[in-house]
Design goal:
Layout (H helix, E strand, L loop, with lengths): L1 E3 L3 E3 L4 H9 L5 E2 L14 H19 L4 E11 L2 E3 L5 H11 L3 E12 L4 E13 L4 H8 L21 E5 L2 H5 L3 H10 L3 E3 L2 H9 L5
Parallel strand pairs: 2-3, 2-4
Antiparallel strand pairs: 1-9, 4-5, 4-6, 6-7, 7-8
Helix pairs in contact: 3-4
Amino acid sequence: MIVHHAPIILASESPRRRQLLEEAGIRFSIEPSSIRESDFQAMPPEKYTKTLARAKAAEVADRHPDAWVIGADCIVFIHDTILEKPESVAEARRMIHRLSGMSHFVFTGYSIVCRNQSALFTDVVQTEVMFKPLTDAEIEWYIHTEEPYDKAGGYAIQGLGSFMVKGIIGSYTNVVGLPLCEILDHLSRMGVIERQTACTDLRAAAGDGRP
């Protein structure tokens, strides 16, 4: 089991990030940040995602100084171009055509902030994703599903879009939207969460009554 020693807040309303944390056994509340990507100037992908993740986490942490707040920002990057979320069928079509038969990179910046502990940690994780060559019919079918329109790069590796993905190098959960391994390791190192076995629980419950 996982023991929580402090409250955790996810500064995002992304259902994919919520699901990843829930499946990892983390208890948390959700308070989306009001930070908008459009308020930030273009910059290299590593810096861009880290800057946004830190801004999102910091904004929510200011309202909850005793909590450990997780902020994240995810983009798709190909040929020196950042692909955000498509806003139309035409834009989704252009994105998927561009990704077809190519390798691209997914960058997820993440930030963990606790004001009362003067803690602020920010990093970025990169994953390479390879798409198979897609036919026009495959692209048209996919972009007329509901899936592409709230996803960076216009696809979901964990959903219908999985048929396009030939392989990945790096973290799978990073492509979904949250690098779980790195985030959970940091929370553990900072003492926010603790993994305990059943034997540990029994010994702790025994207390001074142990022989």
